[in-house]
Amino acid sequence: MSEKVLVIGGGIAGFSTAIGLHQRGIDVEIVELHKQWQVYHVGIIVQSNFIRALAQLGVGDKAVQAGYPYKGWRFLKNDDGKELARDEGVSSIGEEYPADLGLARPALHDVLFNKVSELNIPLRQGVTFTSFKQTNDHVVVEFTDGTQGTYDIVVAADGAYSKVREELFAGKYKPEFFGQGVWRYNLKRPKDLEWAEGYITDPTRSIGTVPLTEEEMYIFVCCCEPGNPYFPPETLAEEMRKRLTGYGPIIDSFAEQITDPSLVVYRPLEVCIVPKPWYKGRVVLIGDAAHSATPHLGQGAAMAVEDAVVLAEELDSPASMEQRLERFMERRFDRAKYIATQSMQLGQWMIDLDSNANPIGVYQEVRKKIAEPI
Ligand SMILES: Cc1cc2nc3c(=O)[nH]c(=O)nc-3n(C[C@H](O)[C@H](O)[C@H](O)COP(=O)(O)OP(=O)(O)OC[C@H]3O[C@@H](n4cnc5c(N)ncnc54)[C@H](O)[C@@H]3O)c2cc1C
Predict the structure, then answer these.
(1) How does pLDDT run across 175-199, given as a tens digit for each residue?
(2) Nearest CA to ligand 1 atom 21
(3) Residue 77 CB coordination number (10 Å)
């Protein structure tokens, strides 16, 4: 097939799409807004379906090597660290895919970027679109570097604050503040820390540590942030320490190490779930541009890579573009929406202090769901 695809956004979804299309011999190029990569230094948690999807792109092993496959979750009493429960990570997909992996964002970026470079996929950094016009057969895109290109399809992988989504749907879908924020900071990993650990403090917040490499782990606290306040950068360490105060000596000892405000990553949680279809004509949204949910399940990156794998498969078909995109929606919409809804449910229970909350039930159902083939 001699079609040409433009991917807007060089993040997890965009790189994965480009790799998947290139593997199928489809001509693809990427534009990325930022000249210098802006990848936060902290980590994410991912599960076996993420590794399975990356394995289809030929980089599953590299991602596992770049991260730390931890043993599962231990839930600890905050004051004395006594274990209250544990959820051993058993891969619902297969032993070759670790159930749980801690992964620094820059390490994941390097895995994907190195593959894009190795495949010589054209990538222009510091460039984005200024406009796109659709005809029946093509999309004509004008770029900020003064060039123009004609494509068979444009894939918008430009994240939660997608400018393509804004244009395509005339501003109809916008991120909305969810009520909570997440604070993260990297710390030295104790040599014996092989589990992710969640501290049972009070139901308004979750505090935990996740191994990232042999040397590093990160600590996170997710809690309500009424009114979505702005925090001046120089106050971030102090603000994060405040949110960890009052939970006993173990958490105090972590908090004491949070000293450099420039190394604190704070993100208010904002959500935007676009109803189907995620496309209009020959422009399609994927990843966070289509479904940015909360991170309570640690599934955002997996959904982005799965979108990419499925889109590449569907575009590599002789059907009409409409049929190919329709088929992509059939395979992706319900799954991505289900994961987003379950993830947001976990957060909503914390906000509402809901006594009927059943997070364990959600985790069990989600483990079954993610094992399903995509
Ligand atoms: C606090 C927090 C914690 C999270 N924790 C986890 C976790 O533990 N596990 C997990 O799986 N997920 C987690 N996520 C979600 C995860 O980060 C996202 O789901 C994932 O990054 C989506 O990938 P993406 O490629 O769609 O978007 P992004 O990663 O946002 O990439 C978008 C790319 O597009 C570029 N771009 C933006 N605008 C333009 C433009 N106009 N033109 C060209 N390029 C553009 C950006 O610079 C970027 O490179 C978390 C999210 C948050 C906010």
Answers:
(1) 999 999 999 999 999 999 999 999 9
(2) 301
(3) 14
Atom in ligand 1 nearest the alpha carbon of residue 162: 38
Indicate yes or no: pTM above 0.70. yes
Cβ(271) to ligand 1 under 6 A?
no
pLDDT score, position 93: 80
Q: Which of 19, 29, 31, 33 to mutate to test the pocket of ligand 1 (most atoms within 8 A of CB)?
A: 33
Question: How far away, in angstroms, is 291 Cα from ligand 1 center?
Answer: 11
Cα of 58 from ligand 1 centre, angstroms: 21
Owning domain of residue 342: 4-68+101-175+270-371
Same domain for 262 and 159: no
Cβ proximity of 160 and 175 under 8 Å: yes
DSSP state of 174: -
In this model, does residue 1 exceed pLDDT 60?
A: no
Q: Tell me, using a 6 A CB cutoff, whether residue 43 lines ligand 1.
A: no
Looking at the structure of the chain, the number of domains it has is: 2
Ligand 1 nearest-atom number relative to CA 287: 26
First to last CA, the chain: 24
Ligand 1 neighbour 10 (Cβ under 6 A) = yes
φ/ψ of residue 186, rounded to 5: -85, 140
Domain boundary at 207, 242, 269, which? Answer: 269
Whether residue 85 lies inside any domain: the answer is: no
Query: Is position 89 within any domain?
Result: no
* Ligand 1 atom 51 nearest Cα: 295
User: What is the token pair recorded at 272?
Assistant: 């935007």
For residues 171 and 167, what is the distance between their CA atoms, to the nearest angstrom? 7
269, 178 contact by CB (below 8 A) = yes
pLDDT digits (tens, 9 = 90+) for 75-106: 999 989 999 999 888 887 888 889 999 999 99
The one-character DSSP state at 86 is: E
